Amino acid sequence: MALKLYGLPISICTSRAMVCLHEKGVDFELVPVNLFGGEHKQPPFLAKNPFAKIPVLEDGDLTLFGLTAFLCATESRAITSYIAEKFKETGTDLIRHQNLNEAASVKVWLEKLEKVLDVYESKLSSTKYLAGDFFSLADLHHHAYTHFLMKTPWASLINDRPHVKAWWEDISSRPATKKVAEGMTIAEKK
């Protein structure tokens, strides 16, 4: 049975989970949730997540969702951690299971997501990715937010830092992130 991910590609947190699933090469079904129609507040969805937030991952009898009623980051990070652990033998090793030092580095950078880009610029001057010379969850968790940031006048925050810009160009050109980015569009008014 394929995994089911409830959410919308335009949701930063749903897209984060989708990139993780694609990086791991895991088949899944994306089940769109009509937020504008209030589907997430109806009993069938509330049975999956009583906090009425997306994303929600179903894997057989297991349903994953966060415990916060305000932010989706908890949901998607719990989901990506679960996927990275469960499917550790396939796709990209996002946790670095074979190297304790690299695994610790991934965890450190996951906790530092709110650091200023100047810190990233310094780090990326000596490594290709945030946790080392390998793509990991530390990088994956930045994709959705940065994707939308790059469509704003503040894209210069990335573009003015050559190492951060090179890092962004690398992670945003991965097949999994490109696949998810195709659905991360906001309908433009005509």
TrEMBL record:
SUPFAM superfamilies attached to this UniProt entry: GST C-terminal domain-like, Thioredoxin-like
- Cite the GO molecular-function annotations of the record: glutathione binding; glutathione transferase activity
All copies of the GST C-terminal domain together span: 73-190
Q: What is its main location?
A: cytoplasm
In Pfam terms, one family for this protein is GST_C
* Record-annotated GST N-terminal domain positions: 1-91
Q: Where in the cell is it found?
A: Cytoplasm, Cytosol
Q: Which GO terms describe its cellular component?
A: cytosol
Question: Known EC number(s)?
Answer: 2.5.1.18
What does the record give as the reaction this protein catalyses? RX + glutathione = an S-substituted glutathione + a halide anion + H(+)
What is one Gene Ontology biological process annotated in the Swiss-Prot or TrEMBL record? toxin catabolic process
InterPro entries the record matches: Glutathione-S-Trfase_C-like, Glutathione-S-Trfase_C_sf, Glutathione_S-Trfase, Glutathione_S-Trfase_N, GST_C, Thioredoxin-like_sf
Its family remark reads: Belongs to the GST superfamily. Phi family.
Q: What is this protein called?
A: glutathione transferase
- Source lineage: Eukaryota, Viridiplantae, Streptophyta, Embryophyta, Tracheophyta
